[in-house]
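Class, look over these structure tokens:
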Amino acid sequence: PKASVLFQHTALLHKGTIPLKACLTTFQDARPPEEQKALRNIQALSDQVTSVVLRDFTEARLFESLQFNDPTGADILLRGEIRSFSWRSSFNPLPFIPYVQIVSFFGVPAGKNVGKVALALEVVDARTNAVIATYAKSSGEERDYSIYQAQDYRAAGGEETGNAFRVTVDQLQAALLQDRERLVTAVTSRASP
């Protein structure tokens, strides 16, 4: 897959702001070895995933302020983990066999692209290092393509993973906003006598 396609998606919409100062740390790569091996051509996956999540949360104005790897003045730390990040393409040989390729006219796909993303995010109190909340979100997308689209899909490989990544980050944003009061209470209650 093309790295530019994997990490390119429309920005998240502003759906609300959590009145806390947050610090996002680099996502840790906890993918299974077979997934790491399959995408070994993608350089610094952790850095790229972190960069996109940072951009998305910043543009969506999810927190009062969001900084990267600098916990100075932060109320909470966001520690992420990449549990799955994969793209796979498979071909059905039938539409490519002479005289049998007629099956493609009846809708038999020439192949399938499958993308999957699973991320976990831990919200930690910046002063006490106590875990306030943990979220694990995932998404996947599959797409069949015809013999006529085979070249196009190979050239644009990774779109399914890119879409799954966008959905997963959107799910994380929604989960954080749903727990807004709990997060704010956890941080402000430690400041009370």
Remarks:
- The chain is about 35% helix and 30% strand.
